[in-house]
Write a structure and sequence with these properties.
The chain contains five helices and no strands. It is mostly helical. It has two domains: 94 residues, no CATH class; 49 residues, no CATH class.
Length: 147
């Protein structure tokens, strides 16, 4: 679904400041479409979804940084992006909590998705892992988001 379609379905006029962030969001939307149509022959089933997770994370982080870090957008525009589902409000809520500032996706903290009922391997601090071991999350391809 394109960004314009999302906006039409939302049926609200975008608030002031939308024209400043729209080009970047269109870029993310173009990358997302490319990732969705990218051929996935030779990849594992989960590997085909990794680029989509990364773009989703980048888009949400962009909105989060604009509002919380740089304070470059208004509360109305931030809320509009959440209501139009341009950014993931659940992921952003986790970023506000200590220890989850760099969380890659919500599946990495859901214990039901792992074999042993724990967090994902990418949530283990790199200092506690072998230095020569390459760690990739099964769900999103993250190489360590705990710090």
């Amino acid at each position: 679904m394109s960004l314009a379609t999302k906006l039409r379905r939302h049926r609200k006029q975008p608030p002031e400041g939308w024209d400043l962030i729209e080009p970047t969001l269109e870029e993310f939307e173009t990358k997302m479409r490319e990732a969705e149509t990218d051929p996935h022959e030779g990849k594992r089933k989960t590997e085909a979804l990794w680029p989509i997770f990364r773009i989703h994370h980048q888009r949400s982080r962009y909105i989060y940084d604009l509002y919380y870090k740089r304070e470059a957008i208004s509360k109305e525009l931030y809320q509009f992006c959440l209501d139009a589902k341009i950014a993931d409000h659940q992921l952003m809520a986790k970023w506000k909590k200590q220890g989850f500032e760099n969380l890659c996706c919500l599946r990495c903290i859901q214990s039901r998705d792992t074999n042993y009922g724990t967090n994902c391997i990418c949530r283990v601090p790199k200092a506690k892992l072998d230095a020569d071991r390459v760690v990739e999350c099964v769900h999103c391809g993250c190489r360590g988001c705990s710090g």
